[in-house]
Specification:
By secondary structure, the chain is of the alpha+beta class. Helix content is about 30%, strand content about 15%. Strand 1 (about 30) and strand 2 form a beta hairpin.
């Protein structure tokens, strides 16, 4: 008797799948601990909260940091989540060469309604791993 095991992907393999067109534009997935995970659809309240948060964060940050919305970040253990908002250090290339890593991240924000349990049980532990100390003031 053989036991089936799920295929876990590295970040490089995940990027290659994307390059090969494995995902359609409508696919909403992220890589969490090597697994492809569907991202829940966002309701109206979630979208309005994001819009208001974006507006206020932009006023507070100005040009002192880069504000990213639902864009990938690279974390250890083969994870590339897409938090609702990430405040990252400015870089001259605006992260064209690669997504932000732990050393670049200043603050991550998840807006949760139906995804609260998932965000607390799965994503929060990824975000709270002691990754790197980032110095500098906003």
């Amino acid at each position: 008797m053989s036991i089936a095991t799920a295929k876990r992907f590295t970040i490089a393999e995940y990027h290659r799948l994307t390059e090969l067109g494995f995902f359609s534009e409508d696919d909403r997935v992220e890589l969490i601990k090597g697994e492809l995970v569907n991202i829940a659809a966002k309701g109206t309240a979630h979208s309005v909260c994001e819009t208001r948060l974006e507006r206020e964060l932009f006023k507070l940050l100005g040009e002192r940091a880069t504000l990213r919305g639902q864009q990938p970040i690279i974390l250890p253990k083969d994870s590339e989540p897409e938090p609702d908002r990430a405040i990252v250090q400015n870089r001259p290339d605006d992260y064209l060469s690669c997504h932000p890593t732990a050393a670049d991240i200043l603050l991550l924000i998840e807006i949760a309604d139906s995804s609260l349990n998932y965000d607390k049980q799965v994503k929060l532990p990824l975000y709270t791993i002691p990754l790197a100390k980032v110095s500098g003031d906003l």
